[in-house]
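Q: We require from you a single protein entry containing the residue sequence and its fold in token form, and nothing else.
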Amino acid sequence: MPIAQDPLSVEVTLPREDVALLTVEGYLDVDTATEFQHHLANQLHHGRRHFLLDLTAVPFMDSSGMNIILRVYQEARELPGSVHIISPAPAVRRILDLTGVSITVPVSESVDEALERVDALPGAPVEPEV
């Protein structure tokens, strides 16, 4: 008898108008990847250019999840935009490192660190100094 998995939960918040923070919880695999992809496509459709993917609560990710991350990375680069992975669980970080995804898609330890990386991108809006 197979072990029941937790369903995938994706919470989307907007730290900025063109930045979507997707907080993912649960297994990101062949059974749940389509749902994750729908959330990303919806944000692309609404004009978001930068994607922060918080994978803290993802205990497992297979190639389906990695393929979606790489696909949105390619689409965001064409906008131009960016994708940042935030604080992946140790097992997920290991997969990202072994496959080289963490070399392509930046990994940050916090939302603030990822936002700093967005701000450092060429063409990023300059915040007025107070």
Observations:
- The longest helix spans residues 63-78.
- The chain has a mean pLDDT of 90.
